[in-house]
Write a structure and sequence with these properties.
About 55% of the residues lie in helices and about 5% in strands. By secondary structure, it is mainly alpha-helical. It folds into two domains: about 80 residues, Arc Repressor Mutant, subunit A (Orthogonal Bundle), CATH 1.10.10; about 130 residues, Four Helix Bundle (Hemerythrin (Met), subunit A) (Up-down Bundle), CATH 1.20.120. Strands 1-2 form a two-stranded antiparallel sheet. Helix 6 packs antiparallel against helix 9. The longest helix is centred in the middle third of the chain and has 25 residues. The relative contact order is 0.16.
């Protein structure tokens, strides 16, 4: 069930736009969500054998869980011989050379939410296309400078959690520029609903997605609302391919739906 079937008649006021208890992953503990997201990232090639995992603090921020939940989740992965700990100056948590990945109930819960995630992506694409088209009418040089600054900060960061925060700020900034304040909570809630399903992407993948942001800015600068909307829809709907969902029956996570990122790794 997507947000569209749960919106109140007075959308834009202080209402819950979706019920998170309806999702399959709501039945998972924070520890299990950490475990599942790392396993899926390994299965989809986002984390390679021998690759170092992000810092505990970065994962806690990006996964929106406590630091202790990340530590305990990593401990279960180490016990399962999926990751290994290395001591020393260049130590940390690394994917094992031959990770012993046995897909468990935590991963299955994510896959059960495929239809929900697809609906959220489509709803986000529609909303953001409308926002960016309207933003053309209200755009100032100051707005352009703000958006350019966010794109540059995404180019400069090497922290995937920080990139995700800047990415959200980019899209929310365009929504605010559109000056339709009562509709902004709809987009905010959709972003929050999708957050639990994102995996730890490689920073190179994120850098490439950031160039799509630049294309949207260029269209805004040229006053081309149609192009800006088209680019925005394509950018958001790429999530259908780059998240854990994707074409049915593709080998990977389970007998359910999975996909590899469409951009080069």
């Amino acid at each position: 069930m997507g947000i569209s079937g749960l919106l109140p008649a007075t959308a834009g006021q202080d209402h819950e736009l979706y019920d998170p208890t309806l999702s399959a992953i709501s039945r998972l503990s924070a520890i299990d969500t950490v475990r599942a997201r790392i396993i899926m990232a390994i299965k989809l090639g986002l984390l390679q054998p021998g690759e170092k995992l992000p810092h505990v603090d970065d994962m806690a921020e990006a996964f929106t869980v406590s630091r202790s939940s990340v530590i305990r989740g990593l401990a279960t992965l180490q016990e399962s011989e999926i990751i290994e700990r290395k001591a020393g100056r260049y130590g940390g948590s690394f994917v094992c050379a031959e990770p012993n990945i046995d897909l468990d109930h935590a991963v299955d819960r994510f896959v059960e939410d495929t239809n929900l995630v697809r609906s959220l992506i489509d709803e986000r694409a529609v909303l953001e296309a409308g926002f960016v088209a309207l933003a053309v009418q209200h755009l100032t040089k100051g707005h352009l400078a703000q958006l350019e600054s966010l794109v540059q900060r995404m180019r400069d960061t090497t922290d995937w959690a920080q990139f995700r925060n800047l990415d959200r700020e980019f899209h929310m900034s365009i929504a605010r520029i559109a000056s339709v304040s009562r509709a902004i909570p709809l987009l905010q809630y959709i972003h929050e609903a999708l957050d639990p399903y994102f995996l730890p992407y490689k920073i190179e993948y994120l850098y490439e997605s950031n160039e799509e942001h630049q294309g949207i800015i260029n269209a805004l600068r040229d006053g081309d609302s149609a192009l800006a909307a088209t680019l925005t829809v394509a950018h958001v709907q790429d999530l259908h391919d780059s998240m854990f969902i994707g074409d049915a029956h593709q080998p990977g996570l389970s007998s359910h739906t999975v996909a590899r990122p469409s951009r080069p790794q």
